[in-house]
Amino acid sequence: MVPLSWYLIFSAALFSIGLFGVLSRRNAVAILLGIELMLNSVNVNLAAFWRYGNVTDIAGQVFAIIVFAVAAAEVSVGLALVISIYRKRNTVIADDIDMLKF
Amino acid sequence: MTVDQIIFLVVAVGTLIAALRVVTTGNLVHAALWLIATLFGVAVTFAILHASFLAVVQVVVYIGAIAILFIFAVMLTRKEMRDRGPQMNRNWWFGALLAAVTFGGLALIVSGWSGVTKTATAYPSDFDAVSALGNALVSPDAYVLPFEVASVLLVAALVGAVYVAFNRK
Question: Which chain B residues have a beta carbon less than 8 Å from that of A57?
Fold first, then answer.
């Protein structure tokens, strides 16, 4: 049987890779890709804790379903913003989208 | 090392390699395709964990909807097929350092926690996780309120997305 720690380490590695993508990519779509990786690592954690805890207590899977819904909402709004900004500014590079900065 | 440990290791290493390709590859269409590989690896992890409904939802919602949405967004937001210039910003080393520190800290916390060597009890053969999940999501004394809030959030976000992306010309 796989120990719980393997899932947790796997999830931490996936989260860190997503964090690196969010912090270092220039393209706004690529930043959203990193956020997806981070949300997925959270879901791995939730499922692992559900399996290694009391299986009949379904709360871990319910949380994961709600994370799915939040991820879908986040990515739809994020990509709509990216497309809208691309129409107005003709760029998706996050460094160039600095209208709020003096 | 048992068979399921080997399966988990193969899946986990493949998923992490695909995730690294997502954040490092220069071509964004390739990055989106590597994201599909990563999501599929996570779906296999769910299947290993006996979370069958999550595995199916992962494939249907994430790969079927979100990844395709990403590919559409990539195609809609480029002037030419090639990505010009550097894909990383100037402070990418700081991001790498912060990610490494995060991973080190999380690994340290995990290894120091007493419950980490816990092994799973045998999966009860008469337990139907899918119907238990369905009942929990609509039962008033379980999670019907978070479920409804999530659906309202999803509707509001989709209406907002349509409004934001609407072309008024």
Answer: none
